[in-house]
Write a structure and sequence with these properties.
With about 350 residues, this protein is an alpha/beta fold. It contains eight helices and 15 strands. The protein folds into two domains: about 160 residues, no CATH class; about 150 residues, NAD(P)-binding Rossmann-like Domain (Rossmann fold), CATH 3.40.50. The strands form three sheets. A six-stranded parallel beta sheet has the order 12-11-10-13-14-15, sandwiched between helices. A hairpin with a 4-residue loop joins β2 and β3.
Amino acid sequence: MTHEFRKIVETAHRYYLNGIPCVMASVVALDGSSYRKPGVRMLIAKDGTMTGAVSGGCVEKEIVFQAESVFKFQKAKMMTYDGRFRLGCEGILYILIEPLQITTDLYNKINQQLKARLSIQIISKYHKSLEEDRIGLRTYINLGYGDTIPLSNSDSPLNKGDNNLLEFTQELSPLFQLYVFGAEHDAVQLSLICSFMGWDVIIIAPPNDPRELQDFPGASQLLHLNPEDITGLAIDQNSATVLMNHNYAKDFNFLIHLLQYSPCYIGILGSRKRRIKLLNELISLKPEVSYEWVERIYGPAGLDIAAVTPQEIANAIISEILVITRAHKKAAQSLSLI
């Protein structure tokens, strides 16, 4: 959800610079089941333009209608949406709608937090009652500096208001990263599809590769590096890596230099035989490598979905990364069979 929140912040800041009022709608509670869970948000501009979504489409129209009074009175309100007879989700959504103002100072602080790969805490004060005179309905953001910053114009001082208000707290982890070691056509496809997932994609290409960032749609960075030059990359436990140089020696060299990092996933293109050869040489050269680190290596990269094309292979890799990062223990199978 971090990438969704980043998009809302970027759009709201642009609205602020252009003097366009906007409001934010946040799902803060749920009774039953729903398509999306508490913590999803959307932004509505004064002209009705929407950024993001909180459901499959039906709820958004009602939110835009309910937001009219928030624009008019600049006061937060609660709304509910009963999807049991309309969405088929058998749930009731509780949605906080509030004026949103992302000043340049606040935008810079949030952006700095994102670039530093630090978590962000979001706190929403809400009530399940729809009474219009509730005081203190509002969302705050905690950037770890000890300050809790309101995201909207306030109708009451910080920590003042109805003592019976409920609190929804959400911890947004750093943006998920994918480091792609390779710059061939399949790397282009993987970069593009991963960008639709909201992942931050970094391409590592050979120093003599003539291609530029614009040749990799969806990628945020293109770095021309040799294996020995990858020291200093921001590869952490919220990062996945894929070796796809189509060159055994290059992939092995990058694998050796990845030992300094602890990504959650290391995918390697090629056959099982190729993976076994890589692992044998790795352990022979670096016998001190931990079993835990070796367990993060997956090859052939991707779930078995009978993938053939570069796009299908990219989907297989993305699916495997999701299974691992979500700690999903079940073997991948059709949802209709679960």
